[in-house]
Amino acid sequence: MSNLSVLPVVGLPQFDGWSQVVERQGDWGLFILSFSVQGQHAGNIGRDVVTLLEEKPATSPRVFHQRLQEIITHVQFNGAQIHLAAGLLLKNSTLLAVDSGLIFLKRGKRMGIVVESEAGLKLVEGNYQAEDIFLFITQPAREFLPEIKLKFEQGYDVPTTVTSIVPSVHQSEITAISSIGVVYEEVEDEHRVFEPKRQIAHRFVTSSNLPSMQVDTSAVELNSTTPVNLTTEKDHKIKLVGSAMGCFSHLVWRLIQGLVKLLVRGLCQVWRLLKLTTDRHQLRIESSRDRIKRLVTMIVLAILLIGLIWLGWSWRSRRQIKASTTGQLAPIIAQLESTRSMAGADPITARRQVEEVQQQLQVLFDQTQSSVAQEIIGQTQIQASHLFEEISGYEKINALDQFYDLRLASLDFVTSRSAGNDLQAVFLDAQKQQLLVLSLVNKSVEKYDLLELESAREVAFVENKVVLLADGFLSLEKGDSEENATWQTMIDKSDTNQAGTFLRSFGSNIYIFAPEKRNIYRYLQDKAGDYSAPVGWLISPLGVPFDDITSMAVDGDIWLTTKDGQIKRFTYGKAQEFSPSDLNQPFVGPLTIVTSQELQALYILEPINNRVVVLTKDGQFLKEVKSSSLGTATTILVSQELQKILAVSGSIIYEIGL
Questions:
Q1: Residue 314: how many CB atoms within 10 A of its CB?
Q2: Is 629 helix (H, G, I), strand (E, B) or coil?
Q3: Which residues sit opposite 614 in a β-bridge?
Q4: Under a CB-based contact definition with an 8 Å cutoff, are residues 205 and 164 in contact?
């Protein structure tokens, strides 16, 4: 029989559910058990099952049936329910067993269920062929069988098929009690055919009829027999080291056994010498000194023997503890790997899952009294800690990369106000009355002199048009050259807009923050393109610290920030509760906020703490970037097209990856 490969797929553990695939392989063949436990303290009961199989492996049909009965009795005695599918693949026969489980067989182009049980233990016996693929599936995991069968019909190899169903198992509502063990050979064997011959004696089974094999005649081609590597390179190295340590410990144990045999022989020889000294035919009478020497020799040999026995027992005990602890940690490590893969799409959930894993590891660490087990658990705790740091969202950069220097377009240019969209950014130097429009794609720049306008003090994009707040609202109408560009009046000058400080837009509507008027005013555009008179947007302006507002953003709601680090949200003119969560350090200084209808998050600049923070619109923390370059930044822009955050500091524009 060539070596058999086993690929496990187990769900994520929960308080009332736990699953595992156990395999033992030797010269006699292969034993595999795919099982799940459902009920209170399922994890502890499941680990008891793993420990039992490690101490008493099943290597014969009689022991196989006995172990399964012991496992079922133990689980039921503890008030839980077990689902199992097991197999004993020997050199000349195959023994299959299920209890609330099923075994699926793929043989060439044929596929079907060999044996299935919804309740009660069933056993069947038969032979196998070299290219057979067995799937040992717990009954709750039966829902994944059509997906596996479809992959086989489409010609996918075993490792690819197994890998493809892992996300479905982990995302399922019954993930904790879903377990699948896949067994297949990589080397062809000679003329062995799986033929159900008979069922074990009736006292061993709950059903007397072997289910007929369901045959699927669709062609299937195996493209690869490469085992699936579900671990990281670091985990692979750890496994290699563990295997080497196992071989070394086996050699040490054999050496200790040899030394013990030599010591026993030595003691026997000493005992014979002592008997000879009392024999009446002894040629000479021993002196007291000789007797003392022999007595000391015996004592030394006895101490050495006891020491070697203790050393061997201690070494063997450590190996058993390591194996048991590794079995307990297997589903936790699998959950960490699953969390790592989902961190990019859903970092908040990933962080919470890692925190739950850290709590589970701490409970295991506190419950065990073995220093060996604590060392192994401690190594897994370090892995979990490193993963949490990796997906925590906190990043520190000494100096940010420079995106563009505006002085290349206009010497001594200093940005006072700016605005941007995915493809363009506009920068206003209110003191020099200059305007620069920068293409974010090719970094080309258009320069406009505003000396004739004199009072330009704020800028915004309104439906991709550059709009200035000067003597009223003016829109940039580009000609065939920068010199031929003109500024068209959109909204005439009035007391309302002249009192404004922040200019923002939502679609074609224009919003202006007017602290002197104690309100935010909205200008609505009609179908003819004309704008209405300003309307106060805030229903209840009382409580708004108008004199402390540092920035404004509009995405349907209106967001305001203050000098003391507050973020205020308004919906339909009414204040809403908003509080950032999970921040390592709360906001304390002046903030600048950027968001829009197209952006799914809030981007906040806090120069006093040298950071840019990204939050969901519900206030949950996503990301923080710290850099000394942000200490002098006055505003930020966001481009989803470039996947960049642009931080503006005077004439320098820095970039941060989204």
A1: 10
A2: helix
A3: 603, 623
A4: no
In angstroms, rounded to a whole number, what is the distance separating the alpha carbons of residues 547 and 514? 10
Return all residues near 364 (Cβ < 8 A) that are at least 6 apart. Answer: 328, 329, 377
Query: How far are the Cα atoms of 162, 338, 421, 570, 604 from residue 601, in angstroms, in the given order?
Result: 36, 25, 15, 16, 10
Cβ contact 646:639 at 8 Å: yes
Question: How many CB atoms neighbour CB 8 within 10 A?
Answer: 21
Q: Which residue has the tokens 């563009």?
A: 404
User: What pLDDT shows up at residue 455?
Assistant: 85
Check: CB of residue 655 under 8 Å from CB of residue 400: yes
How many other C-beta atoms can be found within 10 angstroms of the C-beta atom of residue 603? Answer: 23
Structure tokens belonging to residue 336: 């960490």
Residue 350 to residue 391: CA distance in whole angstroms: 8
- Is 225 a residue whose pLDDT tops 50? no
Strand-pairing partners, residue 143, are none
pLDDT tens-digit readout, 396-437: 999 999 999 999 999 899 999 999 999 999 999 999 999 999
Question: Three-class SS of residue 207?
Answer: coil
Structure tokens at 41: 């303290």
pLDDT tens digits, residue range 512-522?
999 999 999 99
Largest CA distance in the chain: 137
Confidence of residue 464 (pLDDT cuts 50, 70, 90): confident
Neighbours of 371 (CB within 10 A): 10
Which residues on neighbouring strands pair with residue 164, listed in sequence order?
Answer: none
Which residues touch 147 (CB under 8 Å, ≥6 apart)? Answer: 164, 165, 168
Pairwise CA distance, residues 295 & 291, whole Å: 6
Residue 509 exposed, middle or buried by CB count within 10 Å (0-12, 13-18, 19+): middle
Could you list the beta-strand ranges (E) of 119-212. 122-126, 133-138, 179-185, 198-199
Looking only at the bridges linking them, the beta strands covering 394-396 and 621-626 are: parallel
Going from the C-alpha of 43 to that of each of 35, 80, 353, 484, 491, the distances in angstroms are 12, 11, 17, 76, 69
Q: What is the dihedral of CA 591, 594, 595, 600, to 10 degrees?
A: -80
The contacts of residue 198 (CB under 8 Å, 6+ apart) are 124, 125
Helices then strands, each counted (H, E), the chain: 9, 36
